[in-house]
């Protein structure tokens, strides 16, 4: 079989105006970025049409070294739905340069289930991440400038909360000291960087449904505290208009296509372990307005991305998902069940059975949100029919449907079983989406409910810094905000080495970060880092330009 890159290069693409026209997007709304990419200038939404469309969430079991293939499954499902005659649209996140040049590589699917042009989507895609980075760092510079010229005054800035950001995995920037070598360089301060997908402006952009709302959210961002103890926001700085100007075009959703010509809105890219993990509301609602079936995904597993998709994104926008797809692979299940990674491709019914305990927990998480659940096995050539049938029967006993996805090798045709199962599950009426906690709960109660109802643990433990954060949140009257848990993706606990399946654990909350503009509180748990590092041999070592074409993005 050809490599992902070769498949993408060898597949002829439709011009983006044809993709838009087939979807029903007018020429006036289309802003082309070359031949195969565009932004959509949508200024209002048809809420009645959006409510009628069927939103399908794709999530996954806990990730392992073997990978899961969630994006590949999302692309395959959209192509599969179109293959059986449905008007399907994709709504995905944009890849970050950090993982692309780091450990993970690209994030545009794989095999014959990809979104294209894959090199453009993985690198610089229409400039959105660069715009967010520039806006964030411009805001930081303006804040430091105000601090410099108002030092010592009651209205001056005593403490700065805003951190600069960069879309690069760079561990040396986690904690830094600025303004060294003389008083003319500013006020020396301990600070640091977060990766762009974890910046508040990323969340602000992804949760805004209009330019006016974007402006309001930027206005409300808490930047620091004055010497008189008052909160200091972007509105106080008087630069909201400038920051909005930098993000004006980035707010518009991007339109591309799959290898089979299915429209794909790819926009926004917060990580799910250190941020809220969902693509933009602008992209999701645009997809719902123009499609009958919309396939979206949330980062990592159901305990992270899906929980935030329901409790933060759907709550904010009033979205009612029709169902959820839970992606798994046999090797990931076997690794979870104790198999050696050198033997995870071999038949091992005992390890598979043990690994299903973790999947049962993920099914339970989705069912707690009244979701109809379809478990999808991302099939590999070594998967045996006996193990597949065992999984199919096991899922039936747990109240979940089951399907096999062969989209990686066969494209939309190989995803028809999955697509037909989705149509069958969404033909009946959808249930009202319940939430894990009430907005009227205090912050500690919200976190405890997430730990108990979603992770299956006992409690939360707040360290001194988090306890001080609770006091600040109460003083500012922000207890009504939802909570975004930042924790490891490799476990239900805050320790990647402990699975948490026994339920005998608590989550240690190290800090509480107020994202007032985004509209949620970030709970930093365990040793999670909001600026990742690079592996010993990063993916950047394999990326090159050969014959004027970019290669090595996997």
List key phrases describing it.
554 residues, alpha/beta, Rossmann fold, Domain 2, N(10)-formyltetrahydrofolate synthetase, Formyltetrahydrofolate synthetase, domain 3, 3 domains, twelve-stranded mixed sheet, four-stranded mixed sheet, 20 helices, 36% helix, globular
Report on this model:
With 554 residues, this protein is of the alpha/beta class. It is globular, with a radius of gyration of 23 Å. The strands form six sheets. Strands 1, 2, 3, 4, 5, 6, 14, 15, 16, 17, 18 and 19 form a twelve-stranded mixed beta sheet that branches. Strand 22 and strand 23 (520-525) form a beta hairpin. The chain is built from 20 helices and 25 strands. It folds into three domains: 4-127 and 256-426, 3-Layer(aba) Sandwich (Rossmann fold); 129-247, Domain 2, N(10)-formyltetrahydrofolate synthetase; 443-525, Formyltetrahydrofolate synthetase, domain 3, CATH 3.10.410.10. Helix content is 36%, strand content 20%.
Number of helix segments? 20
What is the third-level CATH name, the topology of the largest domain? Rossmann fold
Low-confidence stretches: none
| Main sheet record | 12 strands, mixed
Mean pLDDT metric: 96
Strand runs, count: 25
Q: How many distinct folded domains?
A: 3
Specify the CATH class of the largest domain: Alpha Beta
- The CATH fourth-level homologous superfamily of the largest domain: P-loop containing nucleotide triphosphate hydrolases
Oligomer: single chain
Question: Structural class of the helix and strand makeup?
Answer: alpha/beta
CATH architecture of the largest domain: 3-Layer(aba) Sandwich
Fraction of residues in β-strands? 15-25%
Helix percent reads 25-40%
């Amino acid at each position: 079989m050809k490599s992902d890159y070769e498949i993408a290069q060898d597949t002829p693409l439709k011009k983006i105006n044809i993709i838009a026209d087939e979807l029903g997007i007018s020429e006036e709304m289309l802003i082309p970025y070359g031949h195969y990419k565009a932004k959509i200038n949508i200024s209002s939404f048809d809420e009645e049409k959006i409510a009628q469309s069927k939103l399908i969430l794709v999530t996954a079991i806990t990730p392992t070294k073997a990978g899961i293939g969630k994006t590949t499954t999302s692309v395959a499902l959209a192509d599969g739905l179109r293959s059986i005659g449905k008007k399907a649209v994709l709504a995905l996140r944009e890849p970050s340069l950090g993982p692309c040049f780091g450990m993970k590589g690209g994030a545009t699917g794989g095999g014959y289930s990809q979104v294209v042009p894959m090199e453009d989507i993985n690198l610089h895609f229409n400039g959105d991440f660069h715009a967010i980075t520039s806006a964030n760092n411009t805001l930081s510079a303006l804040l430091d400038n105000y601090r410099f010229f108002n030092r010592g005054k009651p209205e001056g800035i005593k403490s700065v909360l805003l951190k600069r950001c960069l879309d690069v995995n760079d561990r040396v920037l986690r904690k830094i000291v600025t303004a060294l070598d003389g008083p003319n360089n500013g006020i020396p301060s301990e600070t640091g960087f977060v990766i762009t997908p974890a910046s508040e402006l990323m969340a602000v952009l992804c949760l805004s449904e209009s330019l006016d709302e974007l402006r309001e959210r930027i206005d409300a961002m808490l930047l620091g505290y004055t010497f008189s103890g008052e909160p200091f926001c972007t509105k106080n700085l008087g630069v909201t208009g400038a920051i909005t100007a930098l993000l004006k075009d980035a707010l518009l959703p991007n339109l591309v296509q799959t290898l089979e010509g299915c429209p794909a809105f790819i926009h926004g890219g917060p990580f799910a372990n250190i941020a809220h993990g969902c693509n933009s509301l602008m992209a999701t609602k645009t997809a719902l307005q123009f499609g009958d079936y919309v396939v979206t995904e949330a980062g990592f597993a159901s305990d992270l991305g899906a929980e935030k998709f329901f409790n933060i994104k759907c709550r904010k926008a009033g979205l009612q998902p029709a169902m959820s797809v839970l992606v798994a692979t046999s090797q990931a299940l076997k690794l979870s069940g104790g198999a050696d990674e050198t033997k995870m491709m071999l038949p091992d019914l005992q390890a598979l059975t043990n690994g299903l305990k973790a999947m049962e927990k993920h099914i339970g998480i989705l069912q707690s949100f009244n979701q109809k659940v379809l478990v999808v096995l991302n099939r590999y050539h070594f998967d045996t029919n006996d193990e597949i049938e065992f999984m199919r029967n096991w899922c039936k006993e747990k109240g979940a449907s089951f399907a096999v996805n062969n989209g990686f090798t066969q494209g939309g045709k190989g995803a028809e079983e999955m697509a037909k199962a989705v149509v069958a599950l969404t033909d009946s009426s959808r249930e009202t989406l319940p939430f894990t906690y009430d907005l009227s709960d205090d912050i500690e109660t919200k976190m405890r409910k997430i730990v108990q109802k979603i992770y299956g643990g006992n409690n939360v433990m707040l360290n001194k810094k988090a306890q001080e954060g609770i006091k600040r949140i109460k003083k500012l009257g922000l207890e009504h905000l939802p909570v975004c848990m930042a924790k490891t993706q490799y476990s239900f606990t805050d320790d990647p080495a402990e699975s948490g399946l026994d339920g005998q654990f608590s989550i240690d909350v190290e800090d509480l970060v107020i994202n007032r503009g985004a509209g949620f509180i970030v709970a930093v748990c365990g040793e999670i880092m909001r600026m990742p590092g690079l592996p010993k041999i990063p993916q950047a070592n394999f990326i090159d330009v050969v014959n004027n074409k970019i290669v090595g993005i996997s």
